[in-house]
User: What shape does this take?
Amino acid sequence: MSSFVLIASLIFATYGVAVIEEWVSTNRLRLAGPLISTLRLLGQENILPRKSDRLFFEVGPVLLLIAALLSLAVIPLAPGLIVTDLATGALFFNAALAYVLVAMIMAGWGPDGAYGMIGGWRFLGQLIAYAMLVVMPITTVAMRAESLSTIDIVNSQEMLWNIAYQPLGFLLFLFAGMAMAFVPPFDLPVASGELAGGVEAEYTGVRLIIFRLGRMVLILSVSSAIVVFYLGGWLGPFGPDWSWSMIKILGVAALMLSGGRMLPRIREATLLAWSWKLGIPLALANIFLVGVLVLVVPL
Amino acid sequence: MFGSREFSKPNLLHGLIGRATGNDLRVLVVPGPELALAGGLDLMDAGLRMASGPRDANVLLLLPPLGDKMLNAASVAFAQMPRPRAIVALGVKNISPLPEADIYGELSQAGLIESVNSLRLHFAQNSFSNSVQSFDAPALQSRIEYTCPMHPEVVSNQPGSCPKCGMDLVPRETGTDTGQPEEKSVQKTQSSSNAAHAHSSHVKTAPAEVDHGEHKKADGESGDATAKYTCPMHPEVVSDEPGSCPKCGMFLEPVKAESDHGSHSHGSHSHESESSVSKLIGLEPGFMSMIEMTEGTPRSSDGLQMEWITVPFGPFFPGLPAGFGLELTLDGDNVAKATTSSFCGFSDSLENGPINAGDYVENLQGQMPLAPLTYRLLACRAIEAAAEKTSENDNLRDATLAQERIASQLRWLTNLGRQLGLKGIERKAAKLQLLIIGADYEQIIKLTPELSQFIKKVKATPFLRRRLDAVGELPPQSNWDGPQSIENNAAGRLVARLDDISQSLALIKKAGAIGEIKLAEIGNAAGHGHASVDTARGKANLHVELKGGQVISAKLDTPSMRHTELVAPLTDQQELGDALVAIASIDISPWEMRV
Amino acid sequence: MSQLQQYAILFGLTVGTLGLVLSLYALARAIGKTRKEPGKDVPATAGQLSRDPVWVRYHARYTTFALLFLAFDMEMAFMYPWAVVYKEEGLVALLDMGVFLAILFLGLLYGWSQSALKRQ
Assistant: This one.
């Protein structure tokens, strides 16, 4: 029963993220939009660029999907409503999402097209910018929870959500997560105006379905991580636990997808400079601050 | 059917897919989305979404005017679109080399909406069909040429060795448009082998076969096959026997022609795409040492020797002016070199002899679809100056010009929004542009508050100025006469364009009405005349010579012609994203470039 | 659930995803074949047929960031176990890691002063 609820809500949430994505990019709400797009792509030709690195080209999207799904596996929707409650959950989340980079570089390099290749390498630059800002805030979350298990992390926030306990970490993790899920304004690798589609440029048909699905699951996974690490996961005043998780997750996803549309796209060089000159000193300061806070006011 | 997928008995799923395709239309606009805006077409409203490239598109929307060059580029884009795909032609009839359009319509919003409705039906019925044809066009043909991996400027029709470094030339595929007499035979082989393979449609192997045949033939004919020894320092020294170089006394080294040829024919026989790739870029194991690899390759700004690639960013690149053929040589993602061309340029030579003054005005207007009234005004003024007539309603004419300037700046903003990922600005600017172009005086006055608010919003966009600040500094004393800005960078030019909109609005308000631009009666006047007009992009000058009421010669000088020369200095050693923004900031119109 | 079972579930998830992907591919194949046409399989570059291969040694301009990243990423490996026992150990843990992070931060400042934090 619980596994059925889990799968159903994950599918629902992924679909919801796709609807929101289309909504914010076209300014038009179409509930059937993702379904129609999927059907269209299913019926589209699957073009294999000649002289492509077939292995990289095929593996890229699939790896993106698998990495995103694995990272989602350690996210609890409610106590007991989790695929695997690993003792090293937060670390596993991070480890699984490291493969997003590999997938992107493979997908960009594979087709031997210039736009994709540049998009892939730019994402590597982006990773060097965001990776530290993902792991350092996770550390401070774990410091408070005294555990890397995602369930323990949520339980540790019963008194006060982490967004209030360590707001700096939340902001850093939010931006880093957006860069990791390459949503605007960090959508450099797949942007239309920048590289005519970039990494996505050579993908058509069913391969593009997998790529887009992987991306949606990735956005879902990052926003659920934000909810679990900072917004108290399933904790809510009334009603079933899982519904609070869902509301928060979709809310964060909507915020991530729409917020960045107001800003011009950030190039990887700018992001690198910001991240290393400002972000990492702040993240180190956050570790120190939370370190003191955990000893002085252990809520 | 050139757009359907092949399937003999479509079932329920195919029907569903067809209907889904019809409800999820991604359009690639030829010449480009700004032409749709200038023509008053609201693509979003008609239910079309802009595709980011040919792979993303399932509809090719053709709008007039279309030249041969543009149609050739469109045929390449169409060939790369995945099926099911369709062509919609609004207001154009002859679109060869593209196949017949699936939907023809008239050039208006009503025509567009009607076409989209028929398009939905078309996809629902014809996404899958049992009579399917392959699309082919001259622009898609290829031939093999040989080039030196170290010296890309060395290009030959036959295999051999590089005159600069003595390395063996490697084969490379290229288009057929660079006309040389020898290529004909290759082209023939290519097309005949294509025909032979059309049934199994295994196009991929065709170039390899041609390649092999060519190589063999050349092997027998060329003198290179007998050259065995060469000086490592002086490649022009070639000898049949070992010995020392007459120039420097070094021992001559054997040329590695044999081993290369062996592996080459092997590659052709096995039809392995990997092996031909490694041949193409010279990465074959043992082919050459690292030192040889980097010898002669260009040096980057930081002194590293890297390989450069040349990438086309046009004519249909989203975020750049449509029809603008930008080609960037990239060193990583730094621009090392930029070349520009136009896919839709004008011609001011009067090929068909003298032409009536009135016809000339119409002609020039027709050649400039992005600023028709501006150039109409320019032609009228020049002709009137030649006939020594003065026009009485100059104020009203300026108001018309101002209206077109506003529309032009808004289109530019749409493009900038698309390029930077600012969807809100992209949408709003496009909407306002559509309202402005058809508007009369009262409507423009009514739109003024909305426009002012939009200008304020754009100026207040967070991080936009910061993004544009460091980009697009024009070299001192450059030939720039577009909107004058205080700051010499892309941010300054953005502000200048926004201010231009406000000033144009004020000008219209002052004029009190918008006038039609009509050529004054000039009779059988003769003489020289010169006029200039401040277009949205800068000053345009026209010099005409009249004789008996006819234009016998004309010389047009447009802002874009001068500003294209700025592309190279603006992009040199810039990061690719910055380079694209810099190019966008000077707002080049390819229609204003010579063919 | 034992740890081993949990990893078995994750493995099952991976295999299941692969299965889903493969069945989608099979469905797409059943819907129709891709027609081979001239020019179609050339990587698309906005309307021009660019047949030049692009697989070159790419000139990445963030190499100095990448080196710093390696140093920091190594350090993060120690941070996770430290974070878990941090509350238990108390002030000592803060000082231990404080010294470590301070050294690392000085390294970052040094790199900054040597203009490592800019595009090459």
